[in-house]
Amino acid sequence: MENLLEIKDLSKSFDLHNLGKYIRAVSHVNIELKEGEFTGITGKSGSGKSTILKCIYGTYRIQKGSIWYDSKKFGPINLAQATERQMLYLRKHEIGYVSQFLNVMPRTTARQLVQQAILEMGKDQSFAKQETEMILAHFELDKELWDSYPTTFSGGEKLRLNIARAMVKKPRLLLLDEPTASLDHDSKRKVRLLIEQLMKEGTTMVGIFHDLEFMNHLCNREYNMQNGVFS
């Protein structure tokens, strides 16, 4: 494959039988990304932006089109037809996802969450400990919170932890779903620094943002979505 990711004629709809509604979320979406590129998607809430990321990540199954990804393990693979086992491997080792929301196992501390993400990559305990402390410090998460449960964190603290957990793995493909939604200016700057660093190291990214200023000089290309199609 010439590109790391090729989305061809992607369409996704939802049939809400109980409400008697048929909703077309996205139609005829085409995206190509080379390794190390960053594509940004803008648009109003409800325009279908997040649906694209969830189709790539395998959370949604699509009705039409293909999502070709050049996997390190599997070679070129159509994510729209990948098995659950293949998707679980890719999520653990190659494809990262950052959303506005933090879903965590109960009784798991912030430090444990990030360390587990690194250990999943086959790294040893010593490396995982060091990298965890570096990234938690980078996002200025108070040291007193490192061994606390994230359920007690503020929205901004949860979001910073969520970003740290995904970025510390340095995935080949990183999907960013409004990663700066509830962050202050300084936290946004730290996210941007890490994104720039990952891009230099070859991570390919697709990001959804309302903050157009944040995207400035960051994306290789930008798409605007309106009513499920690129305008």
The secondary-structure class comes to alpha/beta
In CATH terms, what is the architecture?
3-Layer(aba) Sandwich
Number of helices: 7
Main CATH class = Alpha Beta
Strand order of the largest sheet: 6-7-8-3-9-10
Overall radius of gyration? 18 Å
Largest sheet: 6 strands, mixed
| Alpha carbon gap, first and last residue | 27 Å
| Model regions low in confidence, pLDDT < 50 over at least 5 residues | none
Order of helices and strands: EEEHEEHEHHHEHEHEE
Number of strands: 10
Give average pLDDT, whole number: 89
As for the number of domains, it is: 1
> How much of the sequence is in beta strands?
25-35%
Instruction: Assign an overall shape.
Output: globular
Topology:
Layout: E1 5-16, E2 21-33, E3 38-43, H1 49-57, E4 64-71, E5 75-78, H2 84-93, E6 95-98, H3 110-119, H4 125-138, H5 155-167, E7 173-177, H6 185-200, E8 204-208, H7 212-215, E9 221-226, E10 229-230
Parallel strand pairs: 3-8, 3-9, 6-7, 7-8
Antiparallel strand pairs: 1-2, 1-4, 4-5, 9-10
Helix pairs in contact: 3-4, 3-5
Any overview of this molecule?
The chain is an alpha/beta fold and 231 residues long. The protein has one domain (36-59, 88-230): Rossmann fold. It has helices at residues 49-57, 84-93, 110-119, 125-138, 155-167, 185-200, 212-215; strands at residues 5-16, 21-33, 38-43, 64-71, 75-78, 95-98, 173-177, 204-208, 221-226, 229-230. The strands form 2 sheets. A 6-stranded mixed beta sheet has the order 6-7-8-3-9-10, sandwiched between helices. Strand 9 and strand 10 (229-230) form a beta hairpin. Helix 3 (110-119) crosses helix 4 (125-138) and helix 3 runs parallel beside helix 5 (155-167). The radius of gyration is 18 Å and the shape is globular. Residues 5-231 form the ABC transporter domain. GO terms for molecular function: ATP binding; ATP hydrolysis activity; transmembrane transporter activity. One of its GO terms (cellular component) is plasma membrane. Keywords: ATP-binding, Nucleotide-binding.
